Amino acid sequence: MGMPIHKLSLPEFLAWEEQQTERHEFFRGETFNMVGGKRGHGRVITKLVRHLDTHLDDTRCQVFSENMKVQVGHDAVLYPDVFVTCDDRFTADERVFTAPVLVIEVLSPSTQRYDRSEKFAIYRKLASLREYVLIDPDTRRVEVFRAQPDGGWTFVDMTDGGRLVLESIDFELDLAQVFKGMDSDEAPAS
């Protein structure tokens, strides 16, 4: 998260954000410009959305990516890289969601510290959230935090296990599929 660019109320932010060409996050009245990701970041997001969408196809849950907002109380509006909601209260023209069960952040060097600490602390305020996932496309590290009945969170490092296991939506995927196409030697011959 960079330096704040505006001080607004939540309703002011939501109205202002609708008029912007770039994405901005909101936290306690401050507005922050979002920067674009690199190739690896975008590739991982695309792979995850594709596999999650197929998995959720005949369920009431839906996957969304980085252009949709998640609102946390009256304090924050964030753009997760990927999230899943099973909340059927939203409409087809919805732009702000409030009840994700799963949030995935694909790390970049500039956002890694924020995604691991402050952003995770904000997301933990969501009663609906069951899992928070951090994926580092550079190191191929995959970390999953799972909500526990007592309000705590359990950490599961899936980096060496070879599979991404998301209990909140009963989903498993080989990590090779998550990172497929990231290396230049994997590109198809022309």
The averaged pLDDT comes out at 88
Helical element count?
Answer: 5
CATH topology annotation: tt1808, chain A
CATH architecture: Alpha-Beta Complex
Output the structural class.
alpha+beta
Poorly predicted regions are: none
Number of domains: 1
Order of helices and strands: EHEEHEEEEEEHHEEEEEH
Layout of helices and strands:
Layout: E1 6-7, H1 10-18, E2 24-27, E3 30-33, H2 39-56, E4 62-65, E5 69-72, E6 76-78, E7 82-85, E8 96-97, E9 100-106, H3 112-116, H4 118-123, E10 131-136, E11 141-147, E12 153-157, E13 163-166, E14 171-174, H5 175-178
Parallel strand pairs: 5-8, 9-10
Antiparallel strand pairs: 1-3, 2-3, 2-6, 4-7, 5-6, 7-9, 10-11, 11-12, 13-14
Walkthrough of the structure:
Helices cover 22% and strands 32% of the residues. The chain has 190 residues and is an alpha+beta fold. The chain is built from five helices and 14 strands. It has a single domain (37-182), classed as tt1808, chain A, CATH 3.90.1570.10. It has helices spanning 10-18, 39-56, 112-116, 118-123, 175-178; strands at 6-7, 24-27, 30-33, 62-65, 69-72, 76-78, 82-85, 96-97, 100-106, 131-136, 141-147, 153-157, 163-166, 171-174.
Question: What keyword list fits this structure?
Answer:
22% helix, 6-stranded mixed sheet, tt1808, chain A, 5 helices, 190 residues, 14 strands, alpha+beta
Tell me briefly what this model is.
By secondary structure, the chain is an alpha+beta fold. It has a single domain (37-182), classed as Alpha-Beta Complex (tt1808, chain A). The protein has helices at 10-18, 39-56, 112-116, 118-123, 175-178; strands at 6-7, 24-27, 30-33, 62-65, 69-72, 76-78, 82-85, 96-97, 100-106, 131-136, 141-147, 153-157, 163-166, 171-174.
